[in-house]
Amino acid sequence: MNQTERMKELAELLNQASRAYYQEDREIMSNLEYDRLYDELVRLEKETNTVLSNSPTIHVGYEVLSELPKEAHPSPMLSLDKTKDVDALAGWLGGKEGVLSWKLDGLTVVLTYEDGELVKAVTRGNGEVGEVITNNARVFSNIPRKISYRERLTIRGEAVIKYSDFEKINSEIEDVDAKYKNPRNLCSGSVRQLNNEITAKRNVHFFAFSMVDSGGVETPEELKNSFSARFRFLADLGFDVVEYRLVKPDTIHEAVKDFAERIPQNDFPSDGLVLTYEDIPYGESLGRTAKFPRNAIAFKWADEQAETVLRHVEWSPSRTGLINPVAVFEPVELEGTTVSRASVHNISIVKSLKLGIGDRIMVYKANMIIPQIAENKTMSGNLPIPEVCPACGEKTEIRNENGTETLYCVNPSCPAKNVKRFTHFASRNAMNIDGLSEATMEKFIDKGFLHTLDDIYHLDNHREEICEMEGFGEKSYENIIHSIEVSREALLPQFIYGLGILNVGLANAKVICRYFQDELDQVLCASPEELCEIEGIGDVIADSICAYFKDEKNLAEIGRLRNELHFVKEERNTEQDLLGKVFVVTGSLNHFPNRDALKKVIEDRGGKVTGSVTGNTDYLINNDITSNSSKNQKAKKLNVPIISEEDFLNL
User: Fold this and answer.
1) Any bridge partners for residue 376, and if so which?
2) Which of 8, 70, 103, 634 is catalytic?
3) Tell me, what's the pLDDT at 591?
4) What's the number of CA atoms in the CB half-sphere (13 Å) around residue 240?
5) Domains in the chain, please, with CATH?
6) Which of 191, 221, 504, 508 has the fewest CB atoms within 10 Å, i.e. is most exposed?
7) Which residues contact residue 122 at a Cβ distance below 8 angstroms, ignoring those fewer than 6 apart?
C-alpha cells in the first residue's frame, strides 16, 4: 500500500470513529488508537505535502444530526493541538506564565447572558454550527439563573455528568444491556434532549473554562489581560470554573504530577489538561492555524501501559441478541490496580487488532480508568468468531451497522435472551416482582416453567415442584407468588418498559404513556409520525416501538398479559404551585420518611430538586437552619432562603 492509499484509509477510519463518537454516542476504537492513527496521518501529510479533502486534520467535526435548532458560532470553535510530553509543555510556554486546568470529558457548551439573564446556550457542534439547547441549560444543576453582571457575557465551558451521578443512574437500571457505557455518552444524550425534564433528572453540571466576551468598552482592564482573572471573575458571579493553577516552565512538571495523582479520586470525567497563556493579548497575537488556536495547547496523559498475554475471549450474549467480546488476559498492575479484563466492543475492533489466543498485547487504562487494549504485538489474527451462540448453540450472524461489524444470536428462544428478558420484566423499575432474580429465572426456564412472559402469572401451577427445588421451600414460594399477585395492579409505563423494547427506557416510557393518557391501545396503534411528535422521542425510538408492536408474536403475548393485569392510571398532581422553583434538601427529616419522598412531593407540584446550592436555587430545606454546614454557608452567601420542613409545608 503506497502512502496516498494509506492516507485515504486513515482518513476514512478516523472520520468513521469521530462520527460514531460525536454523532452516535458510541465508540469503535480507543482514544489511544485514534491518537496513534491521527499522528500517523499527520506524519504522512507532511512527508507527501498532500492533504486529502476529507482529512480530519483540516475538518473540526461533523454536521449535527438532531432535531434541535442550529446556530452558527460567531467565530469557529477550533480544537486544540496536543502533546503527551510535559517537557513539550514547558517548551511551549517559552518563559511565559500559563494557566493549567482540567480538560473535562463532556460536551462543550457556550452560554450567553444579557442583562444578567441566560438568553442562549449552544453546543460546540461541528465547531462552526452548534445546536441551541437554551431550555436544557436552564436546568443544569449549577448554572446561575441570574448574575449580577449586566453587560453581555459569553462564556465557554464543559457540561459533564459526575461519576457518582453516572453510577447512581446506572444502578437504577437493572437491565445490563440498558445501562449507559460512560458519563460522556450519557451527558451528550442528556444535554441534547428535546424534553428538558429528562435533562434536569440527569444532574448535568457545567464548568466554565473560558470567557469569550464580556460586553466590550466597560470591560475592566484586568479581564482583558489576565486569563486567571477571568476565572476569578466568573467564580465571583456564581459559576463553577474548572480547577486551575498558574504555572511557569520550572513549575509545570510538579503541577502536572499533582493533577495526575488526583485523577482516581476525581468525581468528574477528564481526558487531560489544558495549558493557556496567562497573558491574553500575547496569546491572541499568536493567531491560529487552520485547525488550532496558538494561545492554548492540550496535554493528554501518556497512559501507563503493561504487556501481557491474551488467554481467551469471552463472548457474552445479551437480552437483545448482541454478543459482546471481552478480552481476558494475564493480570497486570495498571495505575495502582490489578487488571485482567477489557471490553473489545465489537468484531470490527477484534479484526483491527488482529487478536489471537496467546498473543502478547499491550493494555492500558483510558483516562487512567477504563481498561483497553492499546496494541497487539503478535497480531496472529487467529481468534475464531463464534459460529454458534455460547448460550444456546444456534447459529450466529455478523451484522454491519453503520460500518461496524457486530455479532448477534438470531435464535428468538435463546436462553440468554429469555433469562435477561424475564429478569428485566420482573425488575424493580418494571413490574417490580421480588424474588425473581436472574438465577431464579434461569432455574424456572430450565425446568420448563417459563416460555413467555405471561407464564410468570401461572407459576402457581408448579407449586410442588418449586417447593422441592434446592434453595426453595414453602416460604420462598409464598413470597414469590405474593409479589406476583401484587404486580397485577400495574402502571402502564412500567409495563411498557418491562417489555424490553429496544431503545425504550423507563423515562421514555413515562413520556409516551403520559402523551397517550395511559391508554395502552393508543400506544399500540401509534404511528412513527405520532410518536415523533412527542418531545424527546425521535425516529430511532419511534421505529423501535412500531416494529415491536407490529410483530404478531409480541402482540399475542401482550394480549395474554392484559388478561393477567389491571392497569392503574397514575395520579398526577394538577396543582403546579411550585412550578419553576428549585430546591436543595439536606440534613435529617421529621415529616417525611426520606428525601425521595420529599423530592416526589416537590416534583409533583412542578418544582425541581438539585444536589447543590447555586445562584439558581430558590430554597434550601434544612431543619437545622443555624448549622454551619457547607450548604448553609453557600446559601447565605448567595442569599438563598434556608427553610425547615415546617416552612416548606406552609409555603
Assistant:
1) 361
2) 103
3) 81
4) 19
5) 3-48 (1.10.287.610), 70-299 (3.30.470.30), 305-409 (2.40.50.140), 415-567 (1.10.150.20), 582-649 (3.40.50.10190)
6) 221
7) 71, 73, 109, 110, 130, 131, 132, 133
DSSP state of 468: H
CA distances from 625 to 51, 273, 518, 558, 633 (A): 64, 40, 42, 52, 10
Q: Output the nine-digit C-alpha cell for 516.
A: 397517550
Phi, psi dihedrals of residue 407, rounded to the nearest 5° = -105, 135
Q: What is the pLDDT at residue 61?
A: 47
**Judging by beta carbons within 10 Å of its beta carbon (0-12, 13-18, 19+), is residue 162 exposed, middle or buried?**
buried
Confidence at residue 65, expressed as pLDDT on a 0 to 100 scale: 42
Burial class, 490, CB count within 10 angstroms (exposed 0-12 / middle 13-18 / buried 19+): buried
Residues in a beta bridge with 518: none
d(CA 110, CA 152): 13
Q: Is 417 a catalytic residue?
A: no
**Residue 101's pLDDT is what?**
96
Instruction: Find the distance separating the first CA and the last CA of the chain, reported in whole Å.
Output: 74
Give residue 98's pLDDT.
96
Residues with pLDDT less than 70, the chain: 21-26, 53, 58-67, 172-178, 215-219, 302, 319, 335-336, 367-369, 446, 535-536, 571-576, 606
Q: According to the model, what pLDDT value does residue 393 have? A: 85
Strands (E), 230-367: 244-247, 270-277, 296-299, 305-317, 322-334, 337-343, 360-366
Q: Which run of H or of E encompasses 213?
A: strand 205-213
Gap between the Cα atoms of 26 and 17, Å rounded = 9
Could you tell me the pTM of the whole model? 0.54
- Cell numbers standing for residue 424: 428485566
- For residues 49 and 4, give the distance between their C-alpha atoms in angstroms, rounded to a whole number: 11
Q: Note whether 472 and 466 are within 8 A (CB).
A: yes
Which residue(s) pair with 15 in the sheet?
none
Pairing of strands 153-160, 107-114: antiparallel
Phi, psi at 221, each rounded to 5° = -60, -40
Render pLDDT for 321-357 as a digit per residue (tens, 0 to 9). 888 899 999 999 886 678 899 989 889 999 999 999 9
Q: Half-sphere exposure (CA, 13 Å, Cβ side) for 109?
A: 29
Q: Can you tell me whether residue 347 is helix, strand or coil? A: helix
Task: Give which of 94, 104, 59 is closest to 210, Cα–Cα.
Answer: 104
Grid cell listed for 173: 437500571
C-alpha cell of 58? 483540516
The answer to whether the beta carbons of residues 641 and 233 sit under 8 Å apart is no
Question: What cell does 225 get?
Answer: 489581560
**CA neighbor of 192 nearest in space, from 161, 168, 171:** 161
Q: Could you give the CA distance from residue 569 to residue 495 in angstroms, rounded to a whole number?
A: 12
What are 384's three cell numbers? 475464531
